[in-house]
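Re-run requested by the PI after the first attempt was lost when the workstation crashed. Everything re-entered from the original request form. Ligand of interest: adenosine-5'-triphosphate.
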Amino acid sequence: MASVTVEAPAKLNLTLDVLGKREDGYHEMKMVMQSVSLADTLTLEQTPGEGIALFSNLSFLPTDGRNLAVVAAREFEKAAGCKMGHLEIRIQKRIPVCAGTAGGSSDAAAVLRGLNELIGRRFSLVQLAGIGRGVGSDVPYCVLGGTALAEGRGELITPLPQLPACWVVMAKPGFSISTPELFAQFDGKKTRCRPNTEGVLTALEGGDLGGVARRMFNVFEEVLPFRKRERVEELKCLLLDHGALGACMTGTGPTVFGLFSEEAAAWEAYQELKNHCRDTFLTQALGSQN
Ligand code: ATP
């Protein structure tokens, strides 16, 4: 019996831009991604036999082929050309679900990294990211982690200089957002503010945390339904009032986060935000996987 335990960090968008709609129906994206220490923990156990059994601490999560961790295990077996025997996947979820923080994709990436460990690291991380493309657009980034530029549908990854060490306060308001609806709203909107992605890349090159934080921007914030946008703005203001260097919504939301250079300020913001959102986390920026 072989087993391995792997962490699956949450992802944040320091920037999110939609460049346009492609002929294949997908949108062309340009995003600066960042992983943080808030993470799910996965244990993979390989025993003789066959089949995949998945368990998690959240009863509403699918445990069959609809779970991205199961899809990833199947893609891995296909790429490796071998069966992993009977595989038991146990997921301790900490990343909130449907939060814009790629929890499912990160679990899938962790399965790829974990299974690769079990077969003696046959694949490089870049090869694993390639296998991840068959699972979902965010999976290649989640395999590599750290600070990276994601283009295409989000699956084309260029590693970037690491975000300077910082504290991150994340808060997920208690409403959900429909991703297709947000894209439709975005497509129908004429005048658009865009993130200064080049400015963020330059700030990263210079190790300028404040320069990154000030330029964070997500185009989906502008097309949120009015009440949800108000709520997101309110949380961003709270973060800034408590000393965040910048604040932004991640992915298709609704999670809002702020970057802090000082732990004490981040802790105070965390305490305040907890009064507004049950799912509030004090976490730290992470470097890439190795
Ligand atoms: P993204 O930021 O990539 O858009 P998200 O944070 O909005 O992701 P997830 O938490 O990854 O959303 O989950 C979205 C959907 O995926 C949910 O409907 C959930 O049932 C399904 N799902 C499948 N596998 C998982 C998993 N391992 N963890 C969480 N959700 C999963």
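Saved to the shared folder this time. The two ends are 25 Å apart (CA to CA).
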